[in-house]
Amino acid sequence: MNGLPARRLLLVHAHPDDESINNGVTMAKYAAEGVHVALVTCTLGEEGEVIPPDLAHLTADREDALGAHRIGELAEAMKELGVADHRFLGGPGRFRDSGMMGAEQNHRPGAFWSADVDEAAGYLVEVIRELRPQVLVTYDPNGGYGHPDHIQAHRVATRAAELAAEPAYRRDLGAPHVIEKLYWNRVPRTVVEEGFARLHEAGSEVPFPEPATPDDVPGVVADERITAEIGGDEAAEQAFVAAKTAAMRAHATQIAVDGPFFALSNDLAQPLFTHEYYELAVGTPGVPAGERERDLFAGVRA
Ligand SMILES: [Zn+2]
Q1: Residue 144 in contact with residue 15, Cβ under 8 Å?
Q2: Distance in Å, CA 164 to ligand 1 centroid
Q3: Ligand 1 centre from 234 Cα, in Å?
């Protein structure tokens, strides 16, 4: 089947940098194992703030040149993770960053939040029918933390998975394809609490002015809801965490990384998670109830 590897993983994200923060270890691990890992990013992140003072001129309220710059950051990050297939939904700039919930940018022409979900999903159906992934990763219905582009990414990814499987839908976009497993990005509450405990213990060694709080972490849920955990064995894990850290560093306008901690443009320190966690939203778990999958492809048939 068009020369693709046997296992194929598709991730759908809102902005450049979300993939490295949420899934850097997962992407590096599967890319290293020869899985076809594909990333679709829905916007260029044009409305982001900028951390390095010498790049502050790029922001939307000044030169409005951040989107083009972040295309380059994303490409660097993908090199670090070993991921060759990264695309923008509908092509770069088709959908624009909508800004935070309630901002006037939510409703400007081209804003992803204002996009028709079925129309936007059509672009993703074409990718799904081409790559035929067994596993899709995206956000939960609240987008992890309520950002409009993250909520919309969830809606578009969910709708695209349905439409891609629908035999009567748009045969010009390829033959129907059923994705076997759909996961949401999650973080278990105890892992967040332990991460912040380490941050507080490190105290003045943490090079950011203040710590964030567990409420600043997207997708946090009770541990029981986690169905999959991705890390690596000891030697491999170090390499994957190093790749994730380097990928996050590549998004230099958005993320400042220091050792096991990082900060976004709000300058609040957060722990960098070395394992990544998922909740299976659609599909059959590959392990008995109550156990966590250690492989997103567990139980995949085709
Ligand atoms: Zn984002």
Answers
A1: no
A2: 25
A3: 30
Enumerate residues 6+ apart whose C-beta is below 8 A from 55.
69, 252, 253
Query: What is the distance in A from the centroid of ligand 1 to the CA of 15?
Result: 5
DSSP, collapsed to helix, strand or coil, labels residue 192 as helix
Please identify which residue in the block is written with the tokens 């599967």: 30
pLDDT in tens, 120-151: 999 999 999 999 999 999 999 999 999 999 99
Q: What are the Cα distances from residue 245, in Å, to 105, 182, 225, 242, 273?
A: 31, 25, 26, 5, 10
The DSSP line for 70-128 is HHHHHHHHHHHHT--EEEETTSTTSSB---STT-GGGGSTTBGGGS-HHHHHHHHHHHH
* Non-local CB neighbours of 126 within 8 Å, separated by 6+ positions: 173, 174
Instruction: Give per-residue pLDDT as tens, 26-54.
Output: 999 999 999 999 999 999 999 999 999 99
What's the gap in Å between 30 CA and the centre of ligand 1? 22
Is the CB of residue 104 less than 8 Å from the CB of residue 65?
A: no
CA distance 97 to 107: 11
Burial tier of 62 (Cβ tally within 10 Å: 0-12, 13-18, 19+): exposed
pLDDT digits (tens, 9 = 90+) for 140-198: 999 999 999 999 999 999 999 999 999 999 999 999 999 999 999 999 999 999 999 99
186 phi and psi angles, rounded to 5 deg: -140, 160
Q: Judge whether 253 and 239 are in contact, CB under 8 Å.
A: no
Distance 212 CA to ligand 1 centre (A): 17
* Whole-number Å distance between alpha carbons of 128 and 47: 28
User: From its phi and psi, is residue 287 left (phi > 0), alpha (psi between -120 and 50) or beta?
Assistant: beta
Angle between helices 18-32 and 66-81 (to 10 degrees): 30
Reported pTM = 0.97
